[in-house]
Write a structure and sequence with these properties.
5-stranded mixed β-sheet; NAD; lysine biosynthesis; 26% strand; Dihydrodipicolinate Reductase, domain 2; DapB_C; diaminopimelate biosynthesis; Rossmann fold
């Protein structure tokens, strides 16, 4: 089996350093390049097979386009993506056949499973809300994981013909009811000491189901990152969410 050459973008950051260590320890992988602010993404051409991007929202889309131009598959953990940005990547991929891009809001396998469980359960409950809790150094709110979770819940409810969830709120302070993601309320907590945590609250008259996932250390994301690096080449085109690479 040939060694898989991996480049890491954002290598000096907290997640980037953890990814570098995981790649160096993984069987069948070689850390081919560490890139950070000021480095040219195009330099990975011919040096790497796959690149992992844990940079910042303002840079990640341009990085992906540069990787595609360099003929390198991309595994992206940076959040902040929206529909138009994803569409631009899809359009670029149409001209780079055989390359794969994964944009995943969360690489923790437990978090991916919680999202899948939430979508499965959501049509059976009258009310569903999402609470995400992160460290105060996180630059986006709500988290990409929470937005992805809420979008999956909303899609499952629409497919089941469920209507809007009950909410009699008429007055309140701005933000008190959280963000509205396709009709699902999402609340963001920023607290020192946290890493990455999510609760999905599902309620019916007389009962509540709570799904919770906690990442206490960034190493919790590494099995998912390594799985994505190993399998991105077999998933050409754009995939959003690690669940697309798992047999769920």
């Amino acid at each position: 089996m040939e060694t898989l050459r991996v480049a890491v973008l954002g290598a000096a950051g907290r997640m980037g350093r953890t990814v570098c260590a995981a790649v160096e320890s993984a069987d069948g992988m070689e850390l081919a390049a560490r890139l950070d602010v000021g480095d040219e993404v195009a330099d990975v051409r011919g040096a790497a097979d796959v690149a992992v991007d844990f940079t910042v929202p303002s840079a990640t889309e341009a990085n992906v386009h540069a990787l595609l131009d360099a003929g390198v598959h991309a595994v992206v953990g940076t959040t902040g993506w929206d529909g138009p940005a994803l569409d631009r990547v899809r359009e670029h991929l149409a001209h780079t056949p055989g390359l794969g891009v994964l944009v995943a809001p969360n690489f923790a396998l437990g978090a991916v499973l919680a999202m899948a469980f939430a979508a499965k359960a959501a049509p059976w409950f009258e009310s569903v809300e999402v609470v995400e809790l992160h460290h105060p150094d996180k630059v986006d709110a709500p988290s990409g994981t929470a937005r992805h979770t809420a979008a999956g819940i909303a899609a499952a409810r629409r497919a089941a013909g469920r209507g809007a969830m009950p909410d009699a709120t008429q007055t309140g302070l701005d933000g008190a009811r959280g963000a509205d993601v396709e009709g699902v309320r999402v609340h963001a907590v920023r607290l020192r000491g946290l890493v990455a945590h999510e609760e999905i609250l599902l309620g019916n008259p007389g009962e509540q189901l709570t799904l919770r996932h906690d990442s206490f250390d960034r190493v919790s994301f590494m099995p998912g990152v390594l799985h994505a690096v190993r399998t991105v080449a077999s998933h050409p085109g754009l995939t959003v969410g690690l669940d697309g690479y798992l047999d769920l």
